[in-house]
Amino acid sequence: MIQVRFWGVRGDIAVPGPETIHYGGNTLCTTVTDVQDALCILDAGTGLTALGRERMATVGRDQALFLVSHSHWTHTQGIGFYAPFFVRGNTYAFYGLGTDELGFRGFLEAQLAPALSPLHTLNHLVAELAFHEPTGEPLAWGSMTIHPYPTWRGPGAPADETWQCGRPVAYRLSQPDRSLVYLPRMEDPAGQCWERLVAFCRNADVLIHGAYHDGASGQDGTGHTSARSAVRLAQQAGVRQLVLTCYNPLHDDEAIDQMVDMCRALAGNSPLQITGAWEGLVLTF
Amino acid sequence: MQIICWGVRGSVPVPGPATCRYGGNTPCVEVCAGDTRVIVDAGTGIFPLGRRLAPNPAHYDLLLSHLHWDHIQGLPFFAPLRHAGVSLTIHVPVGCLSLLRELVFNANCHRYLAAPFGRPAADIQFETFACPAPENRVPGARWSIGEIEIGTVNLNHPGHSVGFRLSTAGRSVVYYSDTAPFDEILFGSEYLGQAPHKDTKLAGAERERLAAMRQAAIDLAAGADLLIFDSHLTRQEYPQFPHYGHSTPDHALEMAIAAQVRELVLFHHAPARSDTELAKLEEQYRSMAGAHGVALRAAREGERINL
Fold first, then answer.
1. Is A281 a residue whose pLDDT tops 80?
2. Domains of chain A: total
3. In this structure, which topology does domain B2-306 adopt according to CATH?
4. Is the bond preceding residue B120 a cis peptide, omega within 30 degrees?
């Protein structure tokens, strides 16, 4: 059993207000838990604040694996507001790509610098934190195996090619008989990484995919993913359920409804199930 | 003079049904007088403001009180920056300039955030201002932006924050978004992980510095029409969290009375404060303030205040 819950579904910037009440206005944060309650936290946007409150209320000792898909502050800006970080004895592992200059820990550390945050440094989070950069090797977490994936890797790239800093990473979380792919952002402006990406998503039960724009011409090349290409990828990879997230902050609830409808129309009579993620949505499979 | 709060929340934006009435965006206040438009702070509230302004060619001035995330996180998403014909002057305290440039506008640097527009099309200029410590008896910087006169003062906040007075033609608004009260802790650049022990006594010199800071803040706010003031904590929460560098509505009201302002605006609402709680606080403190002849409201996003 894998359970997924959405805490933040926005790209770029949080957008509070009545126009975003249904889908939610927090930046990216999704949790994945298995039957043993091993917790993976996919991205640490502002949605992490509410998750922290819930963990404080329901869990004695908190432990989690953070998988960060992109070293942009919108994917990590909730870190100072996760209350369990301030409890001694809680333990966390972080996986993500940092920046050339600073590495992953340094990237997170720089965000808490004294001028920017009253926390000053990660060392002031009293929980135990460990930081790792993906190498291509799978990780084990609870009953799940996690494969990080470099979304920008084209054909002919050697398997041991260095993971490049600052670029979007996808993750596949698997149990022997089920799996989920998390792909909020990707970089493939020339379309040359497509075949590899299809292979990476092959037969996943759930594909969580960015839907920052609807895929009409002129919107590609921003590093954001489109709803149209999400449907194409899900269909070609034989995915069972496509779940859209990482919405454009300009899109209100009505615009997202329309985008989800458009995706369903594109999928036609195929068995692909399409859901627009909202804050609080729980999927169990 | 016209004032609109676009972001009223402290620390982190909080979207959701519990914040729809007062708003969940981090600080951003728009002040207009005649043809002059000054924006104070660039929390997520600057995003909805930018949507309303773009793409008209225009000049804007932005004052930044300090660089804590909740005051700058909206800046790369300020839509007018995408348009040539727009110019923006960002006024920052001396010492914050190089970090701000690197954070938001270095398109080749992935250290924090690749600039989402690549190079902004707008013309961006930076101006720094000095805000000397009040104990030196040197007043904070003053200058004019179009029809608006700006005055500054240092406030009592971790890593410092700046308070602003914006005045035009006999009308004025004062913005003290982030400050602790001026009696218990003197904040500087060191980290405070917990409340000081209750028996800790401030050294005489620190008490004097705080008193000077408080007096300078009162002097700058004196007689203002509107005082926008940090009310992050409640009276009940404060004893636990004095080291957060924020005030309560009681502290805010005390300053409003001391500075003889006409109206107090409670601001920098805590992320966990729901609309229902805020409405209750607003009502409670409105009658307390009324007894002193001070009008009061809790800042609400999108509300227009005409002076």
1. yes
2. 1
3. Metallo-beta-lactamase; Chain A (3.60.15)
4. no
